[in-house]
Amino acid sequence: MMAVIKSIEELEKIREQARELINLRKDNENKTRIVVGMGTCGISAGAREVLTAILDEIKKRNLTNVIVTETGCIGMCRFEPLVDVIKPDQPKVTYVNVDPEKARQIVAKHVVNNQVIDEWVIPNI
Amino acid sequence: MKELSLHVLDIVENSLRAGATEVEIKIVEDSEEDLLSIEVKDNGSGMDEETVKKVIDPFFTTRTERKVGLGIPLLSQAAKAAGGGLTIESIPGHGTTVRAWFQKSHIDLQPLGDMAKTMSALVALHPEVDFVYTHVKDDREFSLNTKDMKARLQEIPVNHPLVIDWISKFIKENLDNLNGGAE
Ligand SMILES: Nc1ncnc2c1ncn2[C@@H]1O[C@H](COP(=O)(O)OP(=O)(O)OP(=O)(O)O)[C@@H](O)[C@H]1O
Ligand code: FES
Ligand SMILES: [Mg+2]
Questions:
Q1: Does the beta-carbon distance from B120 to A74 stay under 8 Å?
Q2: Strand pairing of A32-37 and B140-145?
Q3: Which of A18, A26, A67, B68 is most buried (CB neighbours < 10 A)?
Q4: Angle CA(B86)–CA(B75)–CA(B55) in degrees, nearest 5?
Q5: Angle made by CA atoms A16, B173, B75, in degrees to the nearest 5
Q6: Does A78 touch chain B (CB under 8 A)?
Q7: CA distance A120 to A95
Q8: How far is A53 from chain B (nearest CA, A)?
């Protein structure tokens, strides 16, 4: 028997589910930004898997106050993949050599619980 | 770069940096011709002839942070290593098409890798851009068109976590289907 392949009609159902979550959103200003380095060096070093892990944590935890964006090359290829976390009214924190497991912990500890993971933050150079 | 799908992500990032609002990604696998091709077509700022020539040469980039552009030479190298090549067609002010082809049975052909991750990453990071991803395998094909998705989703952003998750599953299932069902 042929399995039923996913089709775009399913988006109606997704829309219903998403609407419930979206209604919970309050002020758009107070969002945490997560920025992933997506230059060629970043991508070769694993930025796509890091981003995928971050998006997955956001979905699992129903985080509605987070925006994920990208940046290109910033001339620090040996520190890629790079992830910045910018909490509202707080200075930017840059994590270096991030992997998917670290990325999940960055979401759990820093984004959700406001605890910077100092060991993974960019060293002074 | 370990997978062709990572090259696709990287080449599309060039399009986005060139201000593209529409990007078409087409992957064709033709068993009879023993050919795999990847085409990325954008409506970004484009390049003049002189620039196109230089871009294929690894010592060219318009970025200022580093002198050498890597993305296109890496894909070109991967294509040549697998019995193929790379061409760029570009019209300033109109857009660019990058096409790479490979001998499908070549021992040095990189695996296609995870197109579901590549597409969900692109949509998550660039919800305002319209992406079309078409994958043809011999006489079968499927496509994902974010413009159509947006019309159905209405007020729900296409980069909503639930939608991104759906995109990933949609591509995975449809690719499995193209390949004759999951193992
Ligand atoms: N789709 C495109 N539209 C317009 N210009 C492009 C496009 N793709 C590439 N270019 C130009 O070609 C240059 C070289 O691209 P390439 O991907 O090889 O390196 P890069 O993007 O500069 O750096 P890297 O990819 O290593 O981070 C770019 O800097 C840009 O000027
Ligand atoms: S990140 Fe490698 S030089 Fe830009
Ligand atoms: Mg590039």
A1: no
A2: unpaired
A3: A18
A4: 70
A5: 115
A6: no
A7: 5
A8: 10
Buried b (16+ CB within 10 A) or exposed e, B149-163: bbeebeebebbbbbb
State which residue of chain A sits closest to B73, comparing Cα positions. A40
CA distance B6 to chain A (A): 7
Q: What is the pLDDT of residues B71-109, one digit of tens each?
A: 999 999 999 999 999 999 999 999 999 999 999 999 999
Pocket of ligand 1 (CB under 6 A): A 39-40, 73; B 14-15, 18, 42, 44-47, 55, 61-63, 69-73, 96
Three-state DSSP class for residue B116: helix
Q: Which two tokens stand for residue B140?
A: 């079968």
Per-residue tens of pLDDT for chain A, all 125 residues: 445 678 888 999 999 888 876 655 555 568 999 999 999 999 999 999 999 999 999 999 999 899 999 999 888 889 999 999 999 989 999 999 999 999 999 999 999 999 999 999 987 65
Is A123 part of the contact surface with chain B (CB cutoff 8 Å)? no
